[in-house]
Sequence to fold (520 residues):
Amino acid sequence: MSSAVKNDIHYSNNDWNDIIKKYKLHSNMEIVISEKSSTNPTDSNRGGYASPWVFRTVVLTGLVALLGNLPFQSRLVNASNTNIQAFNISPIEETITKAVASHDHSIKEFEIENQFTEVDDVIIGFHELALPKHALQTYAGTVDEDNSSKWTTYQVKSYDNLTNIFYKLGHQSSLKTLQKDNNFKKELKSLKKGSIVRASSNSDGDLSELVFTHDKRNSYVITLNDDTYTGKWKKNIFEVRQSRASFTIKNGLFFDGKKAGVANKIIKQVVKVFDWDIDFSHDIRVGDEVTAVFEEIYHDGDKVADQNLLAAEFINKGREFRAIRFTNKDNKTDYFTPQGREMKKAFIRTPIAHARVSSHFNPGRFHPKLHKIRAHKGTDFAARTGTPIMATGNGTIKSIGRKGGYGRAIVIQHREGYTTLYAHMSKYKKKLKQGDKVYQGDIIGYVGSSGLATGPHLHYEFRKNNTPINSMTASLPNSMSLTKRELKDFRNSAYNLVLQLNVLHRFVKAKIEINSAIGG
Fold:
């Protein structure tokens, strides 16, 4: 580059208009502003160019836009060195911004012609990519055009037989084929109430695979291979998933629950758990709030059944109730408050379902057999011989056997000083013995007339610290608390469920309904 050119372009504080005139741009990059665009008479004195600040903005913006995203070689002339130095601009935005901000006059010249020639070369190398014919599929955005399952599902009812089951599955013709194999015949006979059965068909409509399970852990799988059926037991074919939901009652507990994705089976468990504290016939109000964490059963990606309510919160008329499911080391499952107390009352009043009271608690009763005044320290329930007798609370068998005028009797020791006695039995439950643990609702024996009894009935006594109490009128104690060891296990088991209820509680209070379909 000649010294004349250098002298012409080495400006320190010249006006930008003069600098623009000195640049020789390619025709395709020239910045042309029509003289007609200016309505100011003085603009003609400026050679038809707009305000210098406009040019500064346009040139700077153009350089940043065009040069900032394209890595290429550029050259500058150092004020103290006439040798042309080459450098890589990376990135050009940072270089220009720093130069302008600091008024760094060491940047004397950009060889614009060379730069734009190189830019043009780069642009020529660009190729337009054709868009795919179909949108790219992602996990969040994929829509399966065929949402139908290849499986048919049926859950066995108490009245079902194999013919009816296979009819419901649409493969009654395959039943005869399977029953020719003694192994298949034996396994199919094991189907019972609650068993889940799934069947799939091949292109010819024949049974290609049959899967059934009794406990959701072990499954029997029958598969068609080369026109021959083979079968074996497999584990973890069915998957148990946790789901959760929260909703506000607007039209009805079951209606709004179903709308929120909670099956009737789960809602029934909610009712049973909170039935001790809430009268679902009279206490339910519009605006009551429900949250639930529960189990759903899946197979091959399809939901096939609902299982257990794991945790729930019910806000009724402003009162909050919570329940957590817990299974103890004896494999006994019940629901407890987050503090570890049973949701249900410690005792039920009647050890026989739908029984009639034939003789009430009466300290001055005249005994019909002894013909004298003898306190009746319990309640008699009239029932037919053989009617099942239930334990009214959790406890341990303290004694079992004949007990004088009581005949065949059982005494159960409960916590906190309570005992119950069941007398005049015809027989005991098989294999029941002293020291065994029993739970509220367990069958312990059957009605009879052993001992001093005028006919078949149950004599039931309810005692606190060995003092007889009228079980029909006494204020029954609240649920029993867990032992220290059980409480420790419960807290470890319930920790995660309590956290989930806390989160769901915030959503329901914010009037945001959550269910598993939207990530709840």
